[in-house]
Amino acid sequence: MAPAPSFNAYEKPPEAIREVYKRYQKLNIAELDTDLDLVDFKRGLTRKQQVCFTEVDHIPAPHTAELYRHFMTRDDPARPDSPNIQVNAADIPVFEHQGLRGLRILPSLLTPDVQMSLLSRLLHRDLSNEQHKTNIHLHYNVKYPTPRTGRTSQGHLSPERIQNLRNVNTDSDTPSFFTYNHDSSHVFLPKNRDIHKPITAYQFLEKKLRWITLGGQYDWTNKEYPLDDEPLFPEDIASLLQGIFPDMTGEAAIVNLYSPGDTLSLHRDVSEECDRGLVSISMGCDGIFVVGVQDDSEDGKHNACATQYTAIRLHSGDVVCMSGKARYAWHGVPQIVRTTCPDWLQDWPAMPEFSAKPNSDEDLYSNWRGWMQTKRINLNVRQLRD
Question: What is the reported pTM?
Answer without folding.
Answer: 0.88
